[in-house]
Design goal:
Blueprint (H helix, E strand, L loop, with lengths): L14 H6 L9 H14 L23 H20 L2 H5 L2 H17 L1
Helix pairs in contact: 2-3
Length: about 110
């Protein structure tokens, strides 16, 4: 995936991307969610563009990072890579409902003429 920081926090998606991804198949939360969303968009053929920002380290408060989030980030990335190599990842994360609805609507419009 042509991304330098797949966990970057500020992300914009075009409507087409979100309609194409089957969001029910995005399984991760936290940082891994951001990685999986970008990976799914990339695997479905969308271009990813990064805009660099300057990140200032936290001086007060506590981190949201936990062992679970760290584990998901490491093993989750390995899991989606594995699935993309040995299973049809694009088919799994591609939203088929929208395609079915649009063809169903065309059938109804055709029948009503």
């Amino acid at each position: 995936m042509p991304v330098k920081d797949p966990t970057a926090g500020f992300v914009c998606y075009k409507r087409e991307v979100l309609e194409t991804i089957n969001l029910d198949e995005i399984k991760f939360i936290g940082y891994a969610f951001q990685i999986e969303m970008k990976f799914a968009a990339w695997k479905l053929g969308f271009k990813i563009r990064e805009v660099p920002i300057v990140f200032i380290d936290r001086k007060t408060g506590i981190s949201k990072m936990s062992k679970g989030i760290l584990k998901e980030g490491v093993f989750g990335v390995l899991k989606i890579q594995w699935h993309s190599i040995f299973k049809n990842y694009r088919k799994r994360v591609g939203a088929t409902e929208i395609n079915q609805r649009s063809s169903y609507s065309e059938d109804i419009l055709t029948q009503s003429k």
